[in-house]
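Bit of a strange request maybe. I'm writing a small parser for structure token strings and I need a real example to test against, not something I typed by hand. Could someone generate the tokens for this chain?
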Amino acid sequence: MIFRPAKKEDVVPIVAMLADDELGAKREDFKYPIPNSYIEAFEHIDSDANQELIVVEDDNEIIGSMQLSFIQYLTYKGGIRSQIEAVRIRKDKRGEGLGEKMFLWAISRAKERGAHLLQLTTDKQRPDALRFYEKLGFNATHEGMKMHF
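Reply from user aminoacidic:
Good idea to test on real output. This should exercise your parser:
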């Protein structure tokens, strides 16, 4: 199993994983060919040194993906925080401990990049995910809010 930066040709399997759950099916537009908006988003992410779109490969097949963002800010003495988003595991690989391996890799990568914390948000409709994150050592220290446009 290897962790590597995503390539343009990985966008289709990544979007397939994003769309392959109850919430993702409502907000993604997975079809083939995929809408160009996904390719444009990939190119934007790929060109930004503070964004890392990562895939997990096993036997030359993509079985997981996640995005890490590195946010420079003035608080914490000019610290860097890392944000993890869009963690997905291919449906046939769920329940095999891959999620924990992905998060351990992400924690290590955030430290390697000099981040002083790793943060995430999770949808309140995913109570199993919340328990999983707490088991990994994440604490619900803040109340998150969003404004959709």
